Input
Amino acid sequence: MTQAYAWCMEEYRQVVFMDVRTIVMHDINGLVAGCEGGDGVGLCAVATGEDLPFYKVDPGVMVAFPSKDRCEDLARIASMPRFRTASCAKTLFNTYFTYEERMVVDPRFNTITFETKTVHKLKDAFVIQYAPSHVPSTARADFSILFRKVDRVVDLFSAELKNRMPWHVLYATLLTPPTQEGEAVITSSAALMKHFVSQFALGKIPWKNQAIIYTENAYPEVREWLVAKGGHAIKVPSLLCPNPRGARSKYGFTKLQLFGLKDWDVVVHIDPGTIILDDITRLWRACPSEFNLCLVEEPEHKPEAHYPNDGVLVTRPDTAFYRRIMNCRKRFSPSRTPCETDFFYRFLKPQGYGLLDPKYNMMAFDPYRRLGFVGAKIIRTDLLEKGGSREERSFLDAKLDEISELSLQYNISDSDSTTERKTGLWFFLP
Output
């Protein structure tokens, strides 16, 4: 019955009370705006469905209008033995406040899961009231979905306070079956493991936020290794590019599956053909909320065209968006490779995706580059021969040595490091 003391807080014009068993799902400023005092009104609340047409109000969510007289009356009544249980609050308020002294607001401000005559669906509710002891209502699928949504919001807030990574953010790398000798460079399992070690040690991404997105049975030993560290392995169906330029670009469209990973709020894809050099924990939030995709454009095509590069992608999974791109992909015929970047360019257009800071995907072949490798957070390893001073290459060499040293702590063999630096994942100019 502590709700009764809301009327004693005379320093406030209105006091909003919400039961601990309520969850706020949307903006509730309208609750205060819709509850006007005056004309003797002392209580504003929702008339619950099962109490209609009698207009009894439920105190789970209510707005009180403090006054000295009501404070004294309610404090005296609430102290009576028969009103000392929480279940008596509804009886007390509906008895004490006459119909003229009550104001009723929209039922979406207090949608009760265990009520048999709810007016609105849970997805439309502003505030949801539930009872943990009422198993049927809390076991409903729609209730579980909403609870997971709230869990994500709470986790995000908690992560901000504790300066940690939210659990619903994923830093992933797509792995497809290795290409055949002669078609493209084969990336070794050890090199891939080093990629994830650098993401953990230098990029500061926790193991639990790392993942391998894979198709068919690509690199089972690497998947098993990452899962043992606390990461994830998520299998997706292959999406093949029509008329690919070699086996390496065959699976390019599979990256579109990132948008279908609805268990995650944000999925950051980092190509294995990159070197992670610095803290990238803020990368996931660098994409404005109105975009499902953010990336760095290839400067080689500017200023005539704004063409995307798929080395680093920040994606926001969304069911409707995923269906739309899947339908469009069926009608799409790429004019250049990689087919997925051509798809982003022609389907989304530059206005349809957000741009990331180039530090998150620095390309040595960028003819307009003004920032040295030492200022980058992620560097693409392809076409390094097109750019980079000897000092920059020495800097990269030192970083690769550091990554190799870190990898030894995880029992990752360094026997093929020389080969890797000249080809494939750790390409480097001698």
User: Anything to note?
Assistant: The CA atoms of residues 299 and 366 lie 6 Å apart. The chain has two domains: 2-131, 165-426. The radius of gyration is 29 Å.
